[in-house]
Write a structure and sequence with these properties.
Strand content: 15-25%
Structural class: alpha/beta
Helix content: 25-40%
Low-confidence stretches: 1-51, 529-540
Number of helices: 13
Distance between the termini: 58 Å
Shape: globular
C-alpha cells in the first residue's frame, strides 16, 4: 500500500515538473486590455467594448493556427516583427492572433484608418468645392475687370485629373474661361492668383523618405492641387546627346540635366531630385543612345502656381488680356486673413467623397489619401493640416472606446515610416465599420477584391479567397501588410489584419504566406460553442 502511494506521488511530481518545463506556445494567450492612459476631452463619450472569446478548436481554426505556428518557427521571420489578428464581425469570437498588440509600420493599410473615418464623418455624397472668384470692380461698358481673378481651393485632389472624366485639365480650364467671359470680362487689369490657404503650405508629411518624395506616387497635398500634382519629364535619345522636356508648361521652372549617355550607358534609368516650391529639378541617370522616347512621372513643385498659370495661358489663348500674369498667395506674401472681398463667378465641385475613396483604396493612391486627411481637418477645424486630420481620427476612435496605445499616425496614406499600428487595432476598426450597416456597405465596396481588382487583382488565384477577400494591401521596403474582410464558407464575415516588418524572405514569399492565411480563413466553417473557460480579450 505504501509502495503504491509512493509511486502515485512520484508520477504526480513528474507530471508537474514536465508541465513547468513545457515550452510556451508561439501563439499569444489572450489577455484583458487595460484602459487607455491617453488624455482625452471630458466631453468625449465612450461606448462600452464587448469581450470576445477565443473560438473552440475546429478543423479550420486548427489549420489556420497551425500555419501561424509554422510561420512563428520559420527562419525567414526570426528577426522580423510580425503579427496576425482575425475575429468575426457579428459575433464575439476570436479566430486567430499572434503578436496582435505589437505596433508595426502598416504601409498602405493605414488608408483603412483614414478613408473609413473620412467616409463616416464627411458623408459619401460630400463634394469638395473650388471657387473661381474676382475682387475689384468690372467696367461693364469696356468689359474690363479692375482687379484680380482668384482660384480658391479647398484641397480637391481630382481637379484637372483625367481619372474622373469631367475633371480633365482642359475641360476645367474651358469652363473657367467661359465663366469669366460670361461675367462680362474681356480684359483683366490684375493677375490670376492661386489661393491654397485652405491647407498648410507644407505638402510633405513627417517621415516620408527623400527618395519617395521624388517620385510621382508620392505627390503632396495642396490647398489648390492640380492634375494630381504630377507631371512627366520626357527624354529622347539622340546621337551622343538627348532632348529633355516636360509634357506641360510649368512656370518659372528649369530642368537641370545630370544624365549620362553614349555607348557605355547601361540602359535607360533616370530619377529626379528636387523639393516643394523649388524652381529646379535635377535629372539623374543614364540614357541609352539607341533608346526611344521615354519618361518619368514627378511631383509638381508648386501646384497652386501651376493651376493659376494654366488658367492665365488659357485666357490668353482665348483673347482675354491679363496684365500681371499669374501668381499665388504664397508667392505674393499674402498670408494674413484680411483680404479684399471677392465675388464668386463659379463653383467647381469634385466627384463625391465615396467616388474618390473608391479610387484611393482600389489603386492605393497616396496623394488622394493625403488630400482627404487634410480636407477632414479643414472641415472639422477650419484649416487643413496633416496633424489636424490625425487628431480628428484619434478623437473619433477614442469616442468609440478603442485603446490607442501603440497607434501612431503621421500621414493619411501610410507612406511615413513613423506610422505604427497593431493588428488588433486594425481589426477593431474594421469590426466597428462592419457593425454600421450604412457605412459598411459603402466602405466595403471601396476595397480591392482578391483576384479581381486593384492592388489585390494578382492574389489568391484558385483558392476560396479569390473573389471573396475585400482588403487593403500595404507594401514598402521590408513591409508587407493586409487588412480587410473575408467571408467564411458558412457566410460569416471575418475582419483580419496581418502585418510583417523586416522579414528576411523576399516580398513575394511574404505575400504568399499571407495569401495562405487568407485562403485558410475563407475555408472556415461555423465555430463551435465558445469554451467558457477561455480567457476573454477586449476589442470593439
Amino acid at each position: 500500500m505504501k509502495r503504491g502511494v509512493i509511486v502515485l506521488a512520484a508520477i504526480a511530481l513528474l507530471a508537474a515538473v514536465v508541465f513547468l518545463l513545457k515550452p510556451t506556445s508561439q501563439q499569444e494567450v489572450p489577455v484583458n486590455d487595460t484602459a487607455s492612459t491617453d488624455t482625452v476631452d471630458s466631453s468625449e463619450y465612450y461606448i462600452p467594448i464587448s469581450d470576445i472569446i477565443l473560438v473552440q478548436d475546429s478543423d479550420g481554426v486548427s489549420a489556420l493556427n497551425q500555419y501561424i505556428s509554422q510561420l512563428a518557427m520559420s527562419n525567414e521571420l526570426t528577426h522580423a516583427s510580425w503579427g496576425v489578428y482575425a475575429a468575426y464581425v457579428h459575433r464575439d469570437s476570436l479566430l486567430a492572433h499572434y503578436n496582435s498588440d505589437l505596433s508595426m509600420v502598416p504601409a498602405s493599410t493605414m488608408k483603412v484608418v483614414t478613408t473609413g473615418v473620412v467616409l463616416d464623418l464627411l458623408g459619401a455624397d460630400t463634394r469638395i468645392e473650388t471657387l473661381l472668384q474676382y475682387d475689384g470692380v468690372i467696367d461693364t461698358q469696356k468689359r474690363v475687370l479692375r482687379g484680380n481673378i482668384y482660384i480658391r481651393g479647398s484641397g480637391d485632389p481630382s481637379l484637372g485629373s483625367d481619372v474622373f472624366g469631367g475633371c480633365v485639365r482642359d475641360s476645367v480650364l474651358r469652363r473657367w474661361v467661359k465663366a469669366i467671359r460670361n461675367a462680362g470680362i474681356d480684359s483683366i487689369q490684375g493677375a490670376v492668383i492661386g489661393d491654397a490657404r485652405a491647407f498648410e503650405y507644407d505638402m510633405i508629411p513627417s517621415g516620408w523618405a527623400w527618395e519617395d518624395m521624388q517620385s510621382g506616387y508620392c505627390a503632396g497635398a495642396s490647398g489648390l492641387s492640380f492634375v494630381e500634382n504630377v507631371y512627366h519629364i520626357m527624354v529622347e535619345a539622340k546621337p551622343d546627346t538627348f532632348l529633355m522636356s516636360t509634357e506641360m508648361d510649368i512656370p518659372d521652372f528649369q530642368l537641370v540635366s545630370q544624365l549620362k549617355t553614349g555607348q557605355d550607358a547601361p540602359g535607360n534609368a533616370i530619377w529626379v531630385s528636387g523639393a516643394p516650391y523649388m524652381n529646379k529639378c535635377f535629372v539623374h541617370g543614364y540614357v541609352s543612345p539607341d533608346s526611344t522616347k521615354f519618361g518619368i512621372k514627378c511631383q509638381v513643385p508648386d501646384p497652386a502656381y501651376l493651376c493659376a498659370y494654366s488658367l492665365f495661358k488659357a485666357l490668353k489663348k482665348k483673347g482675354i488680356h491679363v496684365r500681371d500674369s499669374a501668381s499665388t498667395h504664397r508667392r505674393l506674401g499674402r498670408l494674413g486673413s484680411k483680404q479684399p472681398s471677392r465675388v464668386t463667378i463659379q463653383t467647381w465641385k469634385s466627384p463625391t467623397i465615396l467616388e474618390m475613396i473608391q479610387y484611393t483604396n482600389t489603386v492605393s493612391h497616396n496623394f488622394y489619401a493625403e488630400s482627404l486627411l487634410k480636407y477632414l481637418s479643414y472641415k472639422q477645424t477650419g484649416f487643413g493640416s496633416t496633424v489636424g486630420g490625425t487628431e480628428v481620427i484619434q478623437r473619433y476612435w477614442r469616442r468609440r472606446g478603442l485603446d490607442l496605445r501603440g497607434f501612431y499616425q503621421y500621414d493619411g496614406s501610410g507612406l511615413s515610416r513613423f506610422d505604427a499600428i497593431t493588428p488588433k487595432q486594425l481589426v477593431s476598426m474594421l469590426r466597428s465599420y462592419g457593425k454600421d450597416t450604412t457605412l459598411f456597405k459603402q466602405f466595403y465596396g471601396t476595397l480591392p477584391v482578391a483576384g479581381r481588382t486593384g492592388t489585390l487583382r494578382g492574389l489568391c488565384f484558385g483558392t476560396a479567397a479569390e473573389g471573396n477577400v475585400h482588403a487593403k494591401s500595404g507594401y514598402m521596403s521590408r513591409v508587407r501588410s493586409y487588412a480587410g474582410y473575408v467571408t467564411t464558407k458558412d457566410g460569416d464575415l471575418v475582419a483580419f489584419a496581418m502585418m510583417a516588418n523586416n522579414f528576411e524572405c523576399s516580398p513575394i514569399a511574404m505575400r504568399h504566406h499571407f495569401e495562405k492565411l487568407m485562403a485558410l480563413m475563407a475555408e472556415l466553417k461555423a465555430p463551435s460553442v465558445p469554451d467558457s473557460s477561455a480567457v476573454p480579450a477586449q476589442t470593439p
